[in-house]
Specification:
Elements: E1 3-6, H1 12-21, E2 26-29, E3 40-43, H2 48-57, H3 61-69, E4 74-77, H4 79-84, E5 85-89, E6 102-107, E7 118-123, H5 125-131, E8 136-141, E9 146-150, E10 155-163, H6 168-173, E11 182-191, E12 194-197, H7 208-227
Parallel strand pairs: 1-2, 1-3, 3-4, 4-12, 5-6
Antiparallel strand pairs: 6-9, 7-8, 10-11, 11-12
The structure holds glutamine.
Glutamine binds at residues 45-48, 78-79, 82, 108-109, 142-143, 145.
Length: 245
């Protein structure tokens, strides 16, 4: 199985390293034709405006959009999630091109600028159920977006309570702070074969999100095999799944 990692800018090396830890080779993608042989793609965090400009420069938009439309699994982390969303607010003047596909509206810098980056333990029951380990995951939020709205087909995997005045400073300085006026913002979603996390699993030692995505890829491959003509026989077996450690 070949999993691509969009390698225009941002934390693509860290995703490749996380994949290697779970026995999967990540292929750095910089050209449209490289997508043809891939079964899945990770779009890393970084800076979504820059990523869009580079994708435009390398003529990647048509091939990336086709990849999403074909139903191949795609996981966007942070800037990658913004890129994958249908709609983004809080963007630079003049807007920015999005890949689209994920039926969400994201706020590009919901928590504020770099100084308001923070870490917090987030409860992700789905991840714990499928991958085991602790119920929480250490979320690294760097100039993080948040998902403001999600469409009816979007499954919410995790949310985070933040002060309802969106006082980014207090979230950043004390994410565990108890306040009476909290509101929940969505921070991880799944829509069919698309996965989005506003935080950076590739910057932690916990590879459960990568394993979770790889299972989505395995399931998608199985579906492709069983929906192909005839009764599956030995020759139609899905590609071998990665070795989980
Ligand atoms: N860490 C990140 O990926 C930050 C994303 C950033 N808010 C953007 O606009 O792209």
């Amino acid at each position: 199985m070949a999993v691509g990692v969009l390698a225009l800018q941002g934390s693509f090396n860290e995703h490749v390293a996380a994949l290697r830890k779970i026995g999967v080779k990540g292929v750095e993608v910089r050209k449209p034709e490289q997508l043809e042989s891939l079964s899945a793609l990770i779009i890393p965090g970084g800076e979504s405006t820059t990523m869009a400009k580079l994708a435009e420069y390398h003529n990647l938009f048509p091939a990336l959009r086709d990849f999403v439309k074909m139903g191949k699994p795609v996981w966007g982390t942070c800037a990658g999630l913004i890129f994958l969303a249908d709609k983004a607010v809080g963007v630079k003047s003049g807007g920015q091109e999005l890949l689209g596909g994920l039926d969400c509206t994201v706020h590009r810098n919901f928590f504020g600028s770099q100084v308001y980056s923070f870490e917090a333990d987030v409860l992700v029951p789905e991840l714990a159920a499928k991958e085991g380990g602790p119920e929480t995951f250490r979320g690294v939020f760097i100039r993080s977006p948040a998902i403001l709205e999600a469409g009816p087909d979007v499954e919410i995997l995790a949310d985070l309570s933040v002060p309802s005045d969106k006082s980014t400073k207090s979230v950043a300085q004390n994410p565990e702070e108890k306040s009476e006026t909290l509101e929940k913002v969505i921070i991880a979603v799944k829509q069919g074969n698309l996965l989005g996390t506003v935080f950076h699993p590739e910057l932690t030692a916990d590879t459960r999100w990568h394993s979770y995505f790889l299972k989505m890829v395995g399931d998608a491959n199985m579906q492709n095999c069983s929906s192909s003509e005839g009764v599956p026989d030995g020759s139609q077996r899905p590609p071998d799944l990665p070795i989980y450690q």
